[in-house]
Amino acid sequence: MMHMSDLMGRAVEEPGTEEGERDAGASSGILRVFGRQLKRFRGRAGLERPEFGSMTGYSASTIAAYEQGRRIPPPKFIDQADELLDAGGVLQEMKEEIARAQYPAFFRDAARLEAEAVELHVYANQAVPGLLQTEEYAQAVFGMMRPPLDEDAIARRVAARLARQEVYGKSPQPLMSFVIDESVLRRPIGGREVLRGQLEHILLAGRKPTVEIQVMSLGSEENAGMAGPFTLIETAEGRRIAYVEVQNVSHVHTERRPVKGLEVKYGILRAQALTPRASLSHVEKLLGEL
Hints:
Blueprint: H1 29-44, H2 49-56, H3 60-67, H4 75-84, H5 95-101, H6 107-116, E1 117-124, H7 135-143, H8 151-164, E2 175-181, H9 182-186, H10 192-206, E3 211-216, E4 230-235, E5 240-246, E6 249-253, H11 256-272, H12 276-288
Parallel strand pairs: 1-2, 2-3
Antiparallel strand pairs: 1-4, 4-5, 5-6
Helix pairs in contact: 2-3, 7-8, 10-12
């Protein structure tokens, strides 16, 4: 398994950059090194940026951003560039280091990991997980933020949140499980009708063969998740990653020790929660009470 350094987060944001790429930050040395090498090999091949961009399917401005170390190149581009520029593996050898640089702690990075995941496991005790939210519920969540967001910002964030749910259309779909505290399902964020639609949406999602939803009952005397929500992600390469959020700060964990700790906690939470079948029945009961 690939070992990566823990990266501590900053303000949580939603994904929204072109092609899911992220600003890298001027201090990221590996990106500057890669960019210089990319420019050197492109120059040796006698290719201008627009020409090379058309060969790889990227704009000249994106190629410039890669060469200047301002954006993180995706693995597919690195492979293309190494082959097209006859770099002899020099560019490909930096893929692992660039993978480390791809985890600045903004939420859009966690969202990209979601999109690449083969397994997703979510514990929620504050709000319905973003992967399960309806548009109306998401609108209400962002609308109540303080300091308040303007209408354009809310619209962008709602669109970004819903875009994350494209993961359900993947083939094959990732295996997903959710443990949701009952208090979340009773809290009428946006009003009773919004909550009604949200509960109906959860019931539909819970009937998908690749999705399991469990409710942590308010009557449970044991709850291992009092420290707050978190998500566990496994990628197709077998990497296991976790992230946690509190007060708009996100922490991405890639080292085995903290990830293993959250995996153990999630297993305990699943054991303490209602079974998936009992959970859907409980959601139906809550829906009938509205």
